Amino acid sequence: MAGLINIGLTGILGHQTALNTTGNNITNANTPGYSRQEVQFETQAAQRTGAGSVGTGVNVTDIRRLANEFLTQQVREDTTLFGEQETLNSELSRLDNLLGGESTGLSNALNNFFASLQNAAEDPASLPQRQLVLSEAQQVVNRFEALNQEFVQQRESVKTQMEQGVKDANTLLKSIAELNNAISESPGLAQGREPNELLDKRDEKLRQLSELVNIRVSQAEGSQVNVSLSNGQTLVVGSQAAQLGTRADSEDPLSLEFTLTTGGRTLNVDSQINGGMLGGLRRFESEGLQPAFQELGRVAIALSETLNHQHEIGMDLEGDLGGLFFSDINSEAAQRSRVVANANNAAPQNAQLAVEIMDSAALPAGSWSLQFGGDGRNFELVDRATGKVVNQGRLPDPVQSEISMPGFNIRVEGGTFNAGDKFLIEPTRNAAANIELKLSREEDLAFASPIRAEGASANTGDATINQGKMLDVRDPFTNSLLTNFRQEGQLDPPLEVRFREDGGQLVYDILDADLGTVLQAGDAAAVPPVNVFQPGQSNKLFTEDPRSPDYFGFQFEISGNPRPGDAFNIDYNTNGVSDNRNAEFLAALGTKNTLNNGSQSFAEGYAGLVEDIGVKTRQSQLDKDAGKTLLEQSSNQRESVSGVNLDEEAGRLIQYQAAYNASAQVMSVAQDLFNTLLQSFR
User: Fold this and answer.
1) Res 1: pLDDT
2) Residue 218: CB partners within 8 Å, gap ≥ 6?
3) Distances 209 to 74, 166, 276 between C-alpha atoms, Å
4) What pLDDT does 211 receive?
5) What count of Cα atoms within 13 Å lies in the side-chain half-sphere of residue 620?
6) What is the predicted pLDDT for the residue at 93?
7) Alpha carbon distance 343, 341 (integer Å)
8) What are phi and psi of 528, to 5 degrees?
9) Confidence of residue 2 (pLDDT cuts 50, 70, 90)
10) Within a 10 A sphere around the Cβ of 356, how many other Cβ atoms?
C-alpha cells in the first residue's frame, strides 16, 4: 500500500509543478522577452520483482525553457536593421519637410527676389521698386540663415540622441554583465538546471541593446555570453562591461565621435558603430545632414559671388560704381574658417591655411582631408565621401604655396607641418550662416551701366555701336580697380574709336578722347592683324583677356558699314539714372546657369538638394518598411517557439488538473485498500 500511495504522491507533486509552470506561462504571456517553460517528466526507477518490474511513480527532471538561439539572434539582427532604418527615416523626413516646405524652403524667396529685380528694371529710378529689391534680398538672406539654423538644431538634436543612446547602452551593458554573473552563480547550473528567468532577462537586454547598435553575441562558460561590436571589439566579457562614450570629433569638433573605454584604455570606435539607432544617426549625419550643409553653402557662395560681381560692374543712382551686394565670399575670416585643424595634430600646431573660392560655377559641394606625411611636407588631399586621393604633392621650402582644386585653392601661408597632421577642408563651410546683405540704401543699388557710347554726328557711314557690356571694374588677379575706373565718377581716359584706311583695309584706332593720343593703333599688316574691321558682321572692339595690358574691363561691338573718318565715343554714363542695363543683367541671373559648370541656375541647384534629400527619404522609407517586415517575420518565428499560446496553455492546464486529480484518486484508493486490510484482522 505504501508503494501505491508513493506513486500517487509523485503524481500529485509532479503535476502540481506542471500546473504552477503552466500558470506562470499564462501570467507572463505579455511579459517582454519571456520564453515559455515546459515541465519535463521522467519515470522513476522501477522496482524489480520475480514477476517483472513495477513502476514507482514519476519525477520532474527539468523545467525547460523553450528558446531557439538561432531565432533569438535573428530577432536581434532584424531589430538592429529596423532600428537603423527607422532612425534614418525619421531624421531624413524632418530634413525633407524643412527643405521642401513652401514657407520653410528657399525656392520662394529666390523667385521673389529675382522677380523684384525684373520689376525694378522696368523703372530703375523708382525708389519704392528699389526698396522692394532690398526687402526681397533680405528675405533671401533670412531664409539662408533660418535653414542653416534649422540644420544646426537638427545636428544638436542628433548629438543629444547619440549621448542619450550611449547612456542607455552603458546601462544595458552593465545589466548584461550583472546577469552573466548571477547566471553563473545560479544553484543547480552544474546539474544542467538553468535559471530560466535570468536567461530571459539577459536575452531581453541583448535585444534592447541591438536596438541601439549592431552587436555579436557568443556563448561562454557557465552559460555566460560575451558581447562585442560587429568587428569584434569587446563590450562585455563575463561579468566585466566596457563603457561607451562620446567626445568632440578630433577632425570636426562640431560633430561627435564614439569611444570605448575598457581596462583603463579609451579607443575611438566611431567607424565600428553600425546599425541600430546610433548607426542610423551616424548615417544621417554623413549621408543627409552634412551634404545638406555643404550644398546649401555652395548655393549661398554662388549667389553671393555672382550677384556681387554683377553689381560691382554697375553704377548706382548717385553715379558711383556698385559695391558688394552680399558679403564677400573671400574675406580673410571666411577663407580661414574653411580649414579646421585636427585636434590630434602634433605640436606646435601653428600651421596657417586658408581656402579661397576661385570659381563658384566649378565649386563642388563636399569636404576633404588634407593629410601630411614623410618629413611633414608630403601631402595628400583625400575626398572624405569616397576615400580617394584627389591631389598629392610636396610643399616647397619655404612652405608658402597653393594647392589647386576645381573651384577653389588651398593656400598654405606658413607654419610647421608634421607627419600625421590632418586638416579638414570644407570650402562651403558656414557660407549659409555668414551670408549678409551689404546694401542699406535704395540709392546704392547699381542698376545702370557705368559706360555708354555714341557715334559722332559727322559720321558718313551707317555703322552703329551697341551699348556695351561690362566685364570687370577690378583686376581679377589683384582685386584692385582697373586704371580706367580709378577716378570716381568718370572713365579715365574717355575713349574714341576712329576709322581709317590701312593698305586698302578699314582699321580703327583707339584714342584718348581728351588728349587725342593713340592708345591702340590699327595695323592691317601686322601678324596677326590689329583692329581690322570685318564688314558684314558685328565686330568686337576690345580684348576680353584680363591678362592683356590693353584690357579695359568692358566690351563694345560695331556693326554696319563705317567709313574712314567715322568716330565713336565711349565715356562714363554720367546722369544715367534711367539706365536699366545692369538691372536687367542682375534679373537675368535668376535663370542663368551659374552652378555645376554652367548647367544649373540657383533655383535648380537648390531643387537638386531638395530632390537628393527627397530620394534618400523615400529610399529610407522603403528600407524601413522592408526592415519592419523582416522583424515581424523573425519575431513571429520566435513566438512560434518561445511565445505563450493561451489556448494551448489552457488545454495543458485542464490536462494537468485531470492528472493531478487522478493522482489524488490513486492515493485515495490506496487509503481505502489499507483500511479494508485493517478491518479484515479485527
Assistant:
1) 54
2) 225, 226, 228
3) 14, 10, 9
4) 95
5) 26
6) 96
7) 6
8) -75, 165
9) low
10) 15
